[in-house]
């Protein structure tokens, strides 16, 4: 279930900022039974249409790993030259602070009562290294508590405020350079997906996150190796393997709700900007490959897609 946690983390990492600790990357190997799919290899893509200046789409990974924060020259060149920068969501601190309230239960509600004393006590032991006290844990929604243990435990001395995040650094650079900055989604829209999860599905996610907690570093290292090698399709394959045997409800959320529907929404929202050209789009790499990925959807809209990196 670890890959499932990684996808949830891809969204919630933008709200629950924790540290990241990775060991050296091993040579990536593809998931078993991974088949080819459209646009399954590459991180930077040129999007062009006759009569319009080209734009570029860059697949990001929501991570603080310094190897991910380092951007190749090909990416920096098109980013600097762009007049508009588009991201999945805005990472402005004031908006993040407001949406953190959505992680909390209603006054008077208790996580311990929702999940049971035995499960809560085990969970309290898992979140302790993250600096989350039992009293704070008791105020969190089930899915929010699960996302905490879906992140690597911060190293001693690390602080969410002292570290950085690729998406946030790109947005910050775009604002400093005077670019137009556009968010394809609001943080609330993203969090609403989790809030709409049925109680039994949230509990399923929590139980799996607790079971797989010890494998987080290993799984994140694997995802990072896929990403740095440009094998974005392998990330999708790994997710598909992970979902085998999961409930139909959870499978729907992880594929239809969190990927396919959001892909279509993001494409529709970026189209007016792409029609003007000279746009840099930075979105999670998992949204790019496949028949229902952002790049395939753009070809259906008449755009030519060319891998650049």
From TrEMBL:
Pfam families in the cross-refs: TraB_PrgY_gumN (PF01963)
Topological relation to the membrane, as annotated: Single-pass type I membrane protein
Subcellular location: Membrane
InterPro entries noted in UniProt: TIKI1/2-like, TraB/PrgY/GumN_fam
CDD domains registered for this protein in UniProt: Tiki
Keyword Metal-binding: yes
Known cofactor(s): Co(2+); Mn(2+)
Keywords: Glycoprotein, Hydrolase, Membrane, Metal-binding, Metalloprotease, Protease, Signal, Transmembrane, Transmembrane helix
Keyword Endoplasmic reticulum tagged: no
Segments passing through the bilayer: none
Protein name: TraB/GumN family protein
């Amino acid at each position: 279930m670890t890959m499932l946690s990684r996808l949830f983390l891809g969204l919630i990492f933008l709200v629950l900022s924790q540290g990241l600790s990775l060991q050296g990357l091993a040579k990536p190997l593809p998931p078993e039974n991974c088949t080819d799919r459209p646009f399954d290899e590459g991180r930077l893509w040129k999007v062009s249409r006759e009569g319009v200046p080209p734009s570029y789409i860059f697949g990001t990974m929501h991570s603080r790993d310094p190897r991910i924060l380092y951007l190749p020259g090909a990416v920096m060149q098109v980013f600097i030259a762009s007049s508009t920068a588009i991201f999945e969501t805005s990472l402005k601190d004031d908006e993040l602070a407001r949406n953190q309230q959505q992680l909390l239960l209603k006054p008077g509600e208790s996580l311990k009562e929702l999940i049971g004393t035995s499960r809560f006590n085990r969970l309290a032991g898992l979140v302790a290294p993250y600096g989350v006290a039992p009293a704070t844990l008791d105020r969190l929604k089930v899915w929010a508590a699960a996302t905490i243990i879906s992140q690597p435990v911060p190293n001693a001395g690390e602080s969410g405020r002292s570290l950085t995040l690729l998406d946030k650094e790109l947005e910050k650079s775009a604002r400093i350079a005077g670019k137009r900055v556009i968010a394809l989604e609001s943080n609330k829209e993203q969090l609403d997906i989790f809030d709409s999860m049925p109680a039994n599905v949230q509990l399923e996610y929590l139980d799996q996150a607790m079971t797989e907690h010890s494998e987080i570093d290993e799984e994140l290292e694997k995802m990072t190796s896929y990403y740095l090698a440009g094998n974005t399709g392998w990330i999708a394959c790994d997710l598909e393997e992970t979902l085998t045997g999961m409930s139909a409800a959870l499978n729907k959320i992880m594929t239809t709700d969190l990927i396919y529907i959001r892909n279509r929404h993001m494409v529709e929202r970026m189209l007016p900007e792409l029609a003007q050209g000279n746009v840099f789009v930075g979105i999670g790499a998992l949204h790019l490959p496949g028949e229902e990925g952002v790049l395939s959807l753009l070809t259906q809209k008449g755009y030519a897609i060319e891998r650049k990196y």
